[in-house]
Amino acid sequence: MSATADRLFDRRPWILLGPALSAVTFLLVIPVCFIVVYSFWLRTAIGTEEVGFHLDNWQLVLTDPFYRDILVQTIRIAVVSTLLCIALGYVPAYFIAYAGARHKLLLILLLMLPFWISYIIRTMSWINILGVSGAVNSALMAVGVIDEPMRMLYNEATVVAGLVHFLLPFMVLNIYVSLDGIDRNLTAAAQSLGCNGWQAFREVTLPLSLPGLAAGSLLCFVLAAGTYITPMILGGPQNAMFANLVFETIITQLNWPLGSALSLVLLVLLGAVVMAYTHFLGLDQIAKSFR
User: Fold this and answer.
1) Within-domain flag for 8
2) CATH number, domain at 268?
3) Is 35 within a domain?
4) Which of 39, 81, 165, 278 lies most in the core, judged by the most C-beta atoms within 10 Å?
5) H or E stretch at 49
6) What is the domain extent for residue 281?
């Protein structure tokens, strides 16, 4: 083989990766670099940006209790939503994984159906369910439980409900993939050694499904912490999450420098969570969910 052919062979992986690397560079790396640069600019009183290296935006974001409290609230809502997804998602995932082959495809199809409907439409459907003239109030008034409609919207509980509604399929899918990959002979072996059904689940099935559970938790937490549609539609002003601050600062106030600093804070926080997960468990379980 000639030297030219050797060099071409050595470069073949980079040639194949070229389109993907170019897309990541132009659609992710370069925009993030622009955001980093913008975060050190200043918005003047007349509405223009003062180019330079200023730390005012970062000092405001990192020291103002207003931003800190909303960041803490965002983490709390994301954690609560993730825990509820774990509690509600494991049993359906277990049922699908151990269902017969004839029913498993139908159950997986039903699990994927929510992804075919717009996230905004799914979120707004809660208004028709929990609103003053919604299904719940109408049913309770029809049977005489209440005399006047209850106010159930625009609070943290409805924000969490909307997030769980959105995130639950991701959790079920990750847990299902992990459970489906467990060798059934391991459970049978545990039972042959004296374990009952619950002990076999606790000692064999549950530990082997933890990677999928952790992957689903990571996806749910990251998606919940980075959303702004759900708290905007179902929450009140006191239920704003950090992404709502970014949206309000950039779109409404047109303060790109401050909005860039806010978005980078959220990006660093979620990046730290992903890095911690990668360090302890790895990202292979997430990749399996989309195969």
Assistant:
1) no
2) 1.10.3720.10
3) no
4) 81
5) strand 49-50
6) 64-289
CB 217 within 8 A of CB 173: no
**Residues, the chain, total?**
291
Say how far apart CA 23 and CA 25 lie, in whole Å.
5
Distant-in-sequence contacts of 208-212, Cβ < 8 A, 24+ apart: 208/178, 208/182, 209/175, 209/178, 209/179, 209/182, 210/178, 211/178, 211/281, 211/285, 212/174, 212/175, 212/176, 212/177, 212/178, 212/179, 212/285, 212/289
Q: Kindly tell me the sign of the dihedral angle through the C-alpha atoms of 280, 281, 284, 288.
A: negative
Task: Report residue 290's pLDDT band, with 50, 70 and 90 as the boundaries.
Answer: very low
Q: What 3-state class would DSSP assign to 2?
A: coil
Kindly report the pTM of this predicted structure: 0.86
Neighbours of 220 (CB within 10 A): 27
CB atoms within 10 A of CB 46: 5
Residue 91 forms part of a structural domain: yes
Domain assignment present for 15: no
Q: Residue type for 103, please?
A: H
DSSP secondary structure code for residue 54 in this structure: -
- More confident: 78 or 203: 78
Residue with tokens 């405001």: 60
Q: Is 274 exposed, middle or buried (0-12, 13-18, 19+ CB in 10 A)?
A: middle
